[in-house]
Amino acid sequence: MGAVESPPLVTQLLHAWQQGDLQARDQAVEAMYAELLALARSRYGRHGGGTMQPVVLVNESLLRLIASSPDYRDRGHFVAVAMLKMRSVLVDYLRARSTRKRGSEHPEQVTLALVADQTPVDDALAEVLTLHQGLDRLAAVDRRVASVLELSYFAGMNRQEIAVLLDVSVPTVDRDLRFGRAWLNEFMA
């Protein structure tokens, strides 16, 4: 039998952060910053022009991560949660932007009618808000399927990583992906 490998540095830092070590938190965030920025650019860069720049998106999502309970299993889990926070930050920003454009000081409920009323310049806004609304509705039908789609699309995780994180088999992830994509396609049609 071989020796058990020690967890990677970031995973060790995340576990120390869970124990209350704020220096470990700072080191983990610093170690992951460049990777998160690259992921934000690749996933959300097309929404950056008139909306939120990837650097701002990463910084805001990290602020939200730091303010929340640090319950991360490993580096992959941290990246997945960070990407979901980025989605949340982007949706909040786009909703606020939509509200400002309409001259309202009170937040509006985003509806399909609101999304459909966008100008061509706001196609990215419409796409993100419609996808967000679809995922919320899918979560009401099947939370795990919605989670699989979020982890795949927003966190960029592969099928194996999703299976490990959700403690299900890869074939279950495959079924959830097929069902979820079909459900979202129907919703967005």
Automatic annotation (TrEMBL):
GO biological process entries: DNA-templated transcription initiation
Gene3D superfamilies listed in its UniProt record: 1.10.1740.10, Winged helix-like DNA-binding domain superfamily/Winged helix DNA-binding domain
Q: Where is the RNA polymerase sigma-70 ECF-like HTH domain?
A: 10-186
Q: Which family does it belong to?
A: Belongs to the sigma-70 factor family. ECF subfamily.
Which controlled-vocabulary keywords does the entry list? Sigma factor, Transcription, Transcription regulation
Name the UniProt record assigns to this protein: RNA polymerase sigma-70 ECF-like HTH domain-containing protein
What NCBIfam families is this protein classified in? Sig-70_X6, sigma70-ECF
Taxonomy, top ranks, is: Bacteria, Pseudomonadati, Pseudomonadota, Gammaproteobacteria, Lysobacterales
